[in-house]
Amino acid sequence: MNRQTLLENPISTSACIRPIELYVFIDPLCGDCSSLPPLLRKLQVEYDRYFTLRIALRTSLPKMNLQCLHKDEDELACEKTHPAFPSIAVKTAEFQGKRAGFRYLSKMLEYSFLKSRNVSSFSVLVEIAKKLNLDVDEFIRDFSSKNVLRSLQVDLYMAKEMEVDKAPTFVFFNENIEDEGLKVSGLYDYDVYEQILEELVGGPILPDIPPPLEDLFQRFDTLSTTEIASIYNITEKSAERELKKRLLQQHVERIHFQDMTLWRKKMI
């Protein structure tokens, strides 16, 4: 699981600044992966300066006739569905920016596991792009592009090179290019990932002070009451009280599910 063969596709220039590279392999249709966004958001808020995050797809894709996506973009009917579409959609959103890709993944998991929507449907995937204010025309155009499919193939190649055989899987690399990556399959408590970062950095790591709540909603589309309480290290009751103040001020809006409440910035 050496990094040498992967350096032909560098993540970003920021990888030279941050000491840790973190690859997170996900499968958009995997139930365990639905718990990832809150964990990754908290890691980013607290320890973003220590690592560069790369979301990669680890999906068992059935054979598909990709020619059907290239015949005519206007023929990409809204009724079309395919198990590969969610993975393609995440890569498509990433073409509008790394943050856009992560926001899209989070929203898609919300649609799939909280709203019980069929995210293998092209029309639902376009709806998510609209919700996130992505460039929808660009999203539809890129969805069937060879560049997006090539990007997905790169992720699958990386999964093979790093010997990742399930999702979710975290793979950590430190600054030493000769060192093997540290692979962690499955989901664990948050403090496990803190300990791994500390060990790889080689000393104590200090969490950043979380930004004001308004800035947090600028960065992430939706957040649960539990997640906000965890980020600010306060009780859920205190978090809900602060959120209700902003609800009355019409700064946020509340979305109810059966066993969860989500909050997002109120759209004007």
From TrEMBL:
Keywords: Cytoplasm, Isomerase
Subcellular localization: Cytoplasm
Protein name: ClpXP adapter protein SpxH
Domain of life: Bacteria
Pfam families documented for this protein: Thioredoxin_5
MF-aspect GO terms: isomerase activity
PANTHER family: CLPXP ADAPTER PROTEIN SPXH, GLUTATHIONE S-TRANSFERASE KAPPA
Predominant place of localization: cytoplasm
Gene3D superfamilies found in the cross-reference section: Glutaredoxin
Assembly: Interacts with Spx.
The keyword Cytoplasm belongs to this UniProt entry's keyword annotation: yes
Record InterPro entries: Adapter_SpxH, Thioredoxin-like_sf
SUPFAM superfamilies reported for this sequence: Thioredoxin-like
Native organism: Sporosarcina psychrophila (Bacillus psychrophilus)
Family under the similarity heading: Belongs to the SpxH family.
Keyword Magnesium in record: no
Task performed by this protein: Adapter protein required for efficient degradation of Spx by ClpXP under non-stress conditions. Interaction with Spx stabilizes Spx and exposes the C-terminus of Spx for recognition and proteolysis by ClpXP.
